[in-house]
């Protein structure tokens, strides 16, 4: 079992508050977030961006291991994730994560690749965590 941690602090309340996120690894240390970084274009991060990064990384790693198990040892996988936050019922809900994958895997057929990629999408731990629609568009070079 592996446990990873992060912490958040929010000074002030609501729109005028200022948040800071720190991760266990230190890759993020007091990284700014707030209303303006989440709902407008102010520099800084936000929860949806961090979830998108986690989903892209998790799916891509899961796919690389699934491809290796299927006998493929070489290639490149590049995934972008777009996490959508929508207002509903007086609150907000993350409704979907759209994965777009560009891949180069020498020797794999398009059908075999599609099957392995679909399995990775369904079985990566972040996909399992999200209570949202998950789509996958993939392009095999």
From TrEMBL:
Pfam families listed in its UniProt record: OsmC
Gene Ontology MF annotations: peroxidase activity
One Gene Ontology term from the biological process aspect of the record: response to oxidative stress
InterPro entries: KH_dom-like_a/b, OsmC/Ohr_fam, OsmC/Ohrsf, OsmC_Ohr_Peroxiredoxin, Peroxiredoxin_OsmC
Top-level taxon of origin: Bacteria
PANTHER family tied to this protein: OSMOTICALLY INDUCIBLE FAMILY PROTEIN
Protein's name in the database: OsmC family protein
Organism encoding this protein: Sphingobium nicotianae
């Amino acid at each position: 079992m592996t446990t990873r941690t992060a912490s958040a602090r929010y000074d002030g309340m609501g729109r005028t508050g200022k948040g800071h996120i720190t991760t266990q690894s230190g890759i993020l240390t007091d990284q700014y977030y707030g209303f303006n970084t989440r709902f407008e274009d102010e520099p800084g991060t936000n929860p949806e961006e961090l979830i998108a990064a986690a989903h892209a990384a998790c799916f891509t790693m899961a796919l690389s291991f699934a491809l290796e198990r299927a006998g493929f040892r070489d290639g490149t996988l590049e995934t972008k994730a777009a996490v959508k936050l929508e207002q509903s019922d007086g609150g907000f809900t993350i409704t979907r994560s759209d994965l777009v994958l560009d891949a180069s895997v020498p020797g794999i057929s398009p059908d075999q690749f599609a099957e392995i990629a679909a399995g990775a999408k369904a079985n990566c731990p972040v996909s399992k965590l999200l209570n949202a629609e998950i789509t996958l568009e993939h392009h095999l070079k």
